[in-house]
Amino acid sequence: MAEVVAIKRAPEGPVFSDLENGILRITLANPPANVLSIAAMTSLQGELDRARDDKAVRVIVLAATGKLFCAGHDLKEMNARRTDADKGKAFFEETFAICSRLMQSIVRHPKPVVAEVDGIATAAGCQLVASCDLAIASDQATFGVNGINVGLFCTTPGVALVRGLKPKHAMEMLLTGEMVDASAARDFGLVNRVVPREYLTQIVTKYAQTIAAKSPLTLKIGKEAFYAQAEMGLTEAYEYASRMMVENMLARDAEEGIDAFIGKRDPKWTGE
């Protein structure tokens, strides 16, 4: 795959990105806590939206600068709006609507999204990790949904957690507000792997390269089908999945991939 480098967003902004060899690396850069302010969420949403139809993007890696991956919503930004005439209600509604759209766009994005987590991921930051298709954490990463500690139940992060973790593990995190280390996060199903901090980016890149080498059409079909059937009953899921398999089999990339396998050669994907 030829090297492609996209325009790099300014590092001083809340989010910046670069594209190389089919891997779009989106970095949260809103120190010190990389909070999901309105500006940060809007910027991240913009990067994801641009990547949807960009054929040069095969895989997305979501990372962060500094010692914290993401501390969740900007509570200072939100609390300052309590002086509004409606006590902040409209601003709170806007914040959670933007956040909900962002998390859903990750799940529904046609490209696989991999979280590269180092440091702390709490509240909506933990939700961000749970929303990604894969998550690889350093051995120094910690996770929590600790809104309960300040009188705010992490209800929206719970949507992502209960879909990725066992319900009792999700409730344990939501009810106690306690942080869990990377090993526990792996046991809970929140992350796929835990690796030494010094090798984190290297290992994530290797994962991303492996995925980027697959058929982009097959990745799109497969990701969409995976999440869609998970919401269905067993019979409906099999009927739907069977239709998707037929659709996939009729694609040129499937024909090429099977021919290449039989012919013992490398496939040449067209994305069709």
Provide a compact summary of the structure.
This protein has helices at residues 38-52, 75-79, 89-107, 124-131, 155-164, 167-176, 182-188, 200-212, 216-230, 234-249, 252-262; strands at residues 15-20, 23-28, 59-64, 68-70, 113-117, 120-122, 134-138, 142-144, 180-181, 193-195. It is α/β, with parallel strands linked by helices and 272 residues long.
Uncertain runs are 1-7
Biggest beta-sheet profile? 6 strands, mixed
Strand % is 15-25%
Helical content, roughly? 40-55%
What is the fold-level CATH name, i.e. the topology of the largest domain?
2-enoyl-CoA Hydratase, Chain A, domain 1
What structural class do you assign from the helix and strand content?
alpha/beta
- What is the CATH architecture assignment of the largest domain? Alpha-Beta Complex
Shape: globular
**Topology pattern, helix = H, strand = E:** EEHEEHHEEHEEHHEHEHHHH
Family: Belongs to the enoyl-CoA hydratase/isomerase family.
Function: May play a role in fatty acid biosynthesis and insulin sensitivity.
Protein name: Enoyl-CoA hydratase domain-containing protein 3, mitochondrial
Pfam family, one: ECH_1
What does the model show?
With 272 residues, the chain is α/β, with parallel strands linked by helices. The protein is built from eleven helices and ten strands. It has two domains: 15-212, Alpha-Beta Complex (2-enoyl-CoA Hydratase, Chain A, domain 1), CATH 3.90.226.10; 216-262, Lyase 2-enoyl-coa Hydratase, Chain  A, domain 2, CATH 1.10.12. The protein has helices at residues 38-52, 75-79, 89-107, 124-131, 155-164, 167-176, 182-188, 200-212, 216-230, 234-249, 252-262; strands at 15-20, 23-28, 59-64, 68-70, 113-117, 120-122, 134-138, 142-144, 180-181, 193-195. The strands form two sheets. The protein has a six-stranded mixed β-sheet with strand order 1-2-3-5-7-10, with helices on both faces. It has a four-stranded mixed β-sheet with strand order 4-6-8-9. β1 (15-20) and β2 (23-28) form a beta hairpin. 37% of the residues are buried. Residues 1-7 have low confidence and may be disordered. Keywords: Fatty acid metabolism, Lipid metabolism, Transit peptide. May play a role in fatty acid biosynthesis and insulin sensitivity. This is Enoyl-CoA hydratase domain-containing protein 3, mitochondrial. Belongs to the enoyl-CoA hydratase/isomerase family.
